[in-house]
């Protein structure tokens, strides 16, 4: 049964699925710290009418932040950390203008002017405005009204929709309701600077972001790599995950900047899984936070159901109208992923009492899985819900080989794999804690048998991406099938055929695995989910291939994908974006960026950790006091060393027995 919900906010039509697919093109530079982020142009300005802004708690608290100096020409931008940026510009012939931005619990920007010539008079105007628009409104390109501005003492105060920010500065600026102005006389070869602070009612601590990151890194597993490119990518991984980390008694990682700086069930769970070698505490914090918000009732507006793990948390001013509350539950995969991660967290050393405390949530999650019958399916409950509720959640993401869209309810192949692994995970915990694992193992094996019978397409040599509402296979070749290798639901016979098929050029771009084969009807290498490359998706494929390393071609393909992914990261400055275009490396090198890709993005940032773990064959079992490895690293990577609590020190050197491991 489908339900209707209101589709207007403040007279604005918001009909259609919320937060689905790609956003408007914002471009520019993103600085991020915790749940705060700033999105600006490459010169540092937040421009009205663009999807720019300073965002706190899912609301845009600055919609304009434009520095004007006559004749200013942007020169460069540098980001030493995710929460910092330096914008450098020149006013000919002798003035260098720098803007050093730092985002935290608000924002600080130090504006400096270096005069390398004769004495000069300079006027600097900083135009400031706010609209307190909801993040969804900005993401979707919807307009919002201006906030009320007033000068109060030595600060410009902006108010609207129950929120406020204040802007204050050193350097004795002139304050108006439209911004700040400095009139500066610069003697020859002199320097002037002023610090501008955007506050939210709490003192802004410039040192906090760096101290917070340093404290987190100090407690993490130390990972070193001999290969300089891999070392730089891993360094950026740690820095970005630290910046995306939401502090508190139950820390977790936000999904990604700019549009997903909040808890996402699927994204945060998979990121925590990938980050286990770095910090198992993220897994525990994520699990505890999601368990607290686990569904307890049936609510069509939010798609809450008993036992269901939520999709996303939002605190913006429009959240109640858009979501029916702060939480939306429309996801098919987060619930089994929750159970999978719980068992992994236990293996990686999370305390037994903490794991035991989460068993009721795991059992409620499996009851939700079991309630679907043969396979976990989804169909949105209202027209505002997500039409597709797997990780490929854009409206056109699930389609047949001829390009036709699948009709629901839909059973995704990877979600069945997650359910299979969840039953086995709960069986492992049951056995460890003195319970009977028989029922859970029986559920897993029965599902594996049904899956092989219904999803395998023998004439094609791959798993159907889904079963549609009539139970018929949706026969497109997609990267989703590689997730079936990762979870182990694939039989060896099917896996051997699938490995060979995934190795073909219509799937392997040279920089990662396509989401949809180039031979399929809906393929578009510049689309969001129908032919692009998502680093986390390719990393899961690498882990799946290494699970079946005993099969011909599996390690070869894992090496090609891993090396291609690392080369892509290097091309993007050491940071893997959310996705990039799925164009062949033989024709397009370096990889072509996707214009609205999030960066930094949590599971893309964590993807190198999963790749390293998979190629090391690293499987700790802290409760049993064991760490096993089966390293099969690309030869040119050299040595990789991990040192941390629970695993001690693990060092492995590359050995390649499968020919060339770097694409040409």
Automatic annotation (TrEMBL):
Residues 354-562 form the Mannosylglycerate hydrolase MGH1-like glycoside hydrolase domain. Residues 33-196 form the Putative glycogen debranching enzyme N-terminal domain. One of its GO terms (biological process) is carbohydrate metabolic process. Transmembrane segments: none annotated. InterPro entries: 6-hairpin_glycosidase_sf (IPR008928), 6hp_glycosidase-like_sf (IPR012341), GDE_N_bis (IPR032856), MGH1-like_GH (IPR054491). Pfam families: GDE_N_bis, MGH1-like_GH. This is Glycogen debranching enzyme. It comes from Actinophytocola oryzae.
């Amino acid at each position: 049964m489908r339900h209707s919900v209101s589709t207007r906010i403040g007279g604005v039509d918001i009909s259609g699925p919320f937060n689905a697919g790609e956003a408007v093109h914002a471009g520019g530079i993103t600085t991020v710290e915790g749940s705060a982020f700033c999105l600006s142009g490459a010169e540092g300005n937040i421009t009205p009418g663009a999807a720019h802004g300073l965002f706190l708690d899912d609301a845009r608290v600055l919609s304009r932040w434009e520095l004007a100096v006559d004749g200013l020409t942007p020169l460069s931008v540098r980001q030493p950390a995710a929460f910092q940026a330096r914008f450098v510009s020149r006013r000919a012939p002798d003035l260098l203008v720098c803007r050093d931005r730092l985002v935290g619990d608000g924002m600080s920007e130090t504006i400096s002017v270096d005069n390398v010539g004769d004495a000069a008079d300079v006027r600097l105007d900083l135009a400031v405005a706010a609209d307190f628009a909801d993040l969804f409104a900005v993401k979707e390109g919807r307009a919002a009204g201006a906030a009320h501005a007033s000068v109060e003492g030595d600060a410009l105060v902006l108010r609207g929709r129950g929120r406020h920010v204040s802007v204050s500065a050193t350097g004795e600026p002139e304050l108006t309701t439209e911004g700040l102005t400095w009139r500066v006389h610069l003697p020859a070869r002199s320097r002037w600077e002023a610090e501008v602070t955007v506050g939210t009612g709490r003192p802004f601590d410039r040192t906090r972001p760096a101290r917070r990151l340093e404290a987190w890194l100090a407690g993490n597993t130390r990972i070193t790599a001999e290969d300089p490119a891999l070392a730089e990518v891993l360094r950026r991984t740690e820095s970005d995950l630290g910046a995306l980390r939401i502090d508190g008694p139950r820390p977790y990682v936000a999904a990604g900047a700019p549009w997903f700086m909040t808890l996402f069930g699927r994204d945060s769970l998979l990121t925590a899984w990938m980050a286990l070698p770095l910090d198992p505490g993220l897994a525990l914090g994520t699990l505890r936070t999601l368990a607290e918000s686990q569904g307890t009732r049936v609510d069509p507006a939010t798609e809450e159901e008993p036992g269901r793990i939520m999709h996303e948390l939002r605190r913006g001013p429009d959240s109640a109208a858009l979501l029916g509350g702060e939480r939306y539950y429309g996801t098919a995969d987060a619930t089994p992923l929750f159970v999978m991660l719980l068992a992994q967290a236990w293996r990686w050393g999370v305390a037994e009492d903490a794991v035991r405390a989460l068993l009721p949530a795991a059992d409620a999650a499996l009851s939700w899985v079991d309630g679907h019958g043969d396979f976990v399916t989804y169909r949105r409950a209202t027209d505002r819900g997500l039409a597709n509720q797997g990780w490929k959640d854009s409206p056109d993401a699930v389609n047949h080989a001829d390009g036709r869209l699948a009709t629901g309810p839909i059973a995704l192949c990877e979600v069945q794999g997650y359910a299979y692994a969840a039953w086995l995970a709960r069986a492992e915990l049951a056995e460890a804690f003195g319970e009977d694992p028989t029922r859970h193992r029986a559920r897993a094996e029965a599902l594996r048998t049904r899956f092989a019978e219904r999803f395998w397409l023998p004439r094609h040599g791959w798993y159907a991406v889904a079963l549609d509402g009539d139970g018929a296979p949706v026969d497109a070749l997609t990267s989703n099938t590689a997730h079936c290798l990762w979870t182990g639901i694939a039989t060896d016979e099917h896996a051997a055929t699938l490995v060979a098929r995934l190795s073909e050029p219509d799937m392997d771009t040279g920089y990662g695995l396509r989401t949809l084969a180039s031979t399929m009807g809906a393929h578009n290498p510049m689309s969001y989910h129908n032919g692009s490359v998502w680093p986390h998706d390719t990393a899961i494929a690498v882990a799946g291939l290494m699970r079946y390393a005993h099969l011909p071609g599996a390690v070869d393909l894992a090496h090609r994908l891993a090396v291609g992914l690392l080369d892509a990261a290097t091309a993007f400055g050491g940071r893997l974006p959310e996705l990039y275009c799925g164009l062949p490396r033989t024709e397009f090198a370096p990889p072509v960026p996707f214009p609205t890709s999030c960066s930094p993005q949590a599971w893309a940032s964590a993807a190198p950790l999963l790749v390293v773990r998979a190629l090391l064959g690293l499987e700790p079992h802290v409760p049993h006091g064991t760490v096993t490895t089966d390293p099969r690293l690309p030869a040119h990577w050299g040595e990789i060393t991990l040192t941390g609590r629970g695993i001690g020190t693990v060092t492995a050197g590359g050995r390649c027995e499968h020919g060339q491991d770097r694409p040409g």
